[in-house]
Amino acid sequence: METSLAVRFLSGGMNIVLVLALAPLFEGILRKVTAKVQSRQGPPIWQPYYDLLKLLGKEDIESGESPAMQRFASWLSLAAILTLAVLVPMGTSLPLSGAADAYLLISLLTLCGVSTMLAGLAAGSTYSLVGMSREMMSLMTLEPLMAVVVVVSMVHTRSMRLDAVLNGSAYVQAGLPLAGILMLGVAIFAFQALIGRLPFDIAEAETELMEGSMVEYSGPKLALFKFTHMAKLMVYGALLVSIFAPWGSGLPAPLNLFALLAKLLLLVLVVTLVAATHARYRIDQAIRYYGGLLGLSLVALLLALYGF
To answer: Which residues of 284-295 are buried (b: 16+ CB within 10 A; e: fewer)?
Structure first.
């Protein structure tokens, strides 16, 4: 029993190490491919590592209205994304399958957005408050999408256990899994917005809000938020892969990890192409887009409840 528990904690620790090590690399690949699509040279793929190290070495200047809340929000964002990484399979079996359920997963997904809202509120500047309000509007329509994705999987498996929900559960219904196929389409079209990339980076919109909620942040706190933003691409991608495309996870190590990284790289390329070829949406356009996806997800939930 103790050995089994030790192995599970070691597996969870490996997930955290993978995210810490590879999230900036995926960000670097995204920047490089974006530059190539736009006929630019672009930065080296190692640039995100340099950016994070530079920010961590800077003086931590606190210029917001509530420095204590700013510190709390920055660490909360990092803690939420790393805890989520422990609960998501990263090429291997689920590390802590018996230690959490699908409700905790949904709560952590929401907490990642709440930390950004707290950051903007604690900063107190005009730009940060506008960014916070946009983040709140997005949170109210986007987070239910991920919740419905997980709930549909719960309905299909009749279980809240993560090892059941995060194992291709969208397709376990007998016959043609209409709900799972519909939710796959919703997840694909919502992924760009879930990770806050163009054309859905409205809450930070550099040309309008000068980084929005992050405008009053610098040094280590900004590094934590930047890393969380990078890690979302990897962790949210691994979550969607485990629900909708888990094939290859049963391969022996390290082939199962390579299979996951290949699927994540494909997601990065799709995100890059969309971001490089689309202009930023206005907040009203984005909300209408999110609302349409939310309506489709509710249709999928009804189909799942009726056994389709």
So the answer is: eebbebbeebbe
Give average pLDDT by consecutive 10-residue segment, the chain, 308 residues: 64 88 94 89 92 91 81 92 89 69 86 85 80 82 85 84 77 74 88 87 70 80 92 92 81 83 92 87 88 91 85
Which residue type, as a one-letter code, is found at position 160? M
Residues 85, 99, 139, 292, CA torsion sign: positive
Q: By the 8 A CB rule, do 250 and 11 touch?
A: no
Contact 55, 226 (CB under 8 A): yes
Task: Phi first, then psi: give them for residue 61, nearest 5 degrees.
Answer: -85, 125
Q: Please, what is the angle between helix 255-277 and helix 219-244, to 10°?
A: 110
pLDDT at 51: 94
Upper half-sphere CA count for residue 102 (Cβ side, 13 Å): 23
Angle formed by the axes of helices 283-305 and 178-194, nearest 10° = 160
Those residues whose C-beta lies under 8 Å from the C-beta of residue 174, and which sit 6 or more positions away, are none
C-alpha 262/C-alpha 26 separation (Å) is: 11
pLDDT for position 23: 95
- Assigned token pair, 128: 């940060």
